[in-house]
Write a sequence for this structure.
């Protein structure tokens, strides 16, 4: 992770020198596996469209691209006032690099192939994204953005001793090139597997897909259980 304060223009030069130093010490051997997550931090929701902030972003992006050369990097805009932005960056940086994550990813691929879901996220009990797949980046982002609140609602109900299995919301999409609305569904489903809590968030473009998504949940849960056991 390389974190820089998007609001602190006077510190940009210093921050870029620091980045150069990091790149210089990445040894040849590590370059293949090296990936840098760059956080433009303090990208607060109330100022994210301000022209000076956008200018800062463009300035840093162009400088950073030049400094980094061929190394792999991703830019995230983060703020403590939008926790989703941080949990997404953290999930990507911490989980995606691991061997385990590839296996979780494979389970989701299998699940999506059977159900025709348009986006599926697997979250741990802290709402960090362990794996995600989608047919469309927007659908994935929608799920990522609402997941923390959905899990929070479920946990709140549990505090009232109300056992909540899922939260389902019906959504309407404007259909391209027509006046019709497609009716879809997003659901959050709790999966307690042995002692581990997972959450699944899925976006389905229609009710038939949702039925399939539920039908295959036991299989997914079983696969998750086997995977967890294989880690022990
Ligand atoms: N607006 C905003 N403030 C944040 C965010 N994340 C952390 N902070 C606040 O930023 C402060 C720390 O950053 P700075 O004051 O820049 O600290 P620093 O970079 O160590 O010190 P300086 O050299 O003075 O910039 C703390 O008060 C945090 O609460 C964020 O996303 N948005
Ligand atoms: Mg600072």
């Amino acid at each position: 992770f390389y974190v820089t304060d998007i609001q602190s223009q006077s510190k940009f030069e210093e921050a870029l020198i620091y980045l150069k130093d990091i790149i210089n010490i990445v040894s040849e051997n590590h370059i293949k596996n090296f990936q840098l997550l760059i956080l433009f931090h303090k990208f607060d929701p109330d100022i994210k469209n301000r022209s000076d902030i956008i200018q800062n972003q463009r300035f840093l992006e162009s400088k950073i691209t030049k400094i980094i050369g061929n190394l792999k990097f991703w830019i995230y805009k983060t703020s403590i006032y939008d926790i989703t932005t941080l949990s997404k960056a953290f999930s990507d940086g911490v989980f995606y690099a691991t061997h385990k994550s590839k296996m979780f990813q494979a389970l989701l691929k299998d699940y999506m192939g059977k159900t025709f879901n348009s986006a599926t996220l697997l979250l741990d009990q802290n709402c960090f994204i362990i794996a995600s797949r989608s047919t469309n980046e927007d659908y994935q982002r929608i799920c990522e953005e609402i997941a923390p609140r959905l899990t929070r609602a479920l946990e709140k109900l549990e505090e009232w001793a109300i056992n909540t299995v899922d939260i389902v919301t019906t959504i309407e999409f404007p259909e391209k090139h027509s006046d019709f609305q497609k009716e879809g569904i997003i659901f959050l489903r709790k999966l307690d597997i042995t002692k581990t809590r997972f959450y699944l968030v899925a976006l389905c473009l229609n009710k038939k897909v949702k039925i399939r998504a539920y039908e295959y949940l036991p299989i997914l849960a079983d696969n998750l259980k086997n995977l967890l056991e294989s880690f022990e």
Residues 67 and 139 are 33 Å apart (CA to CA).
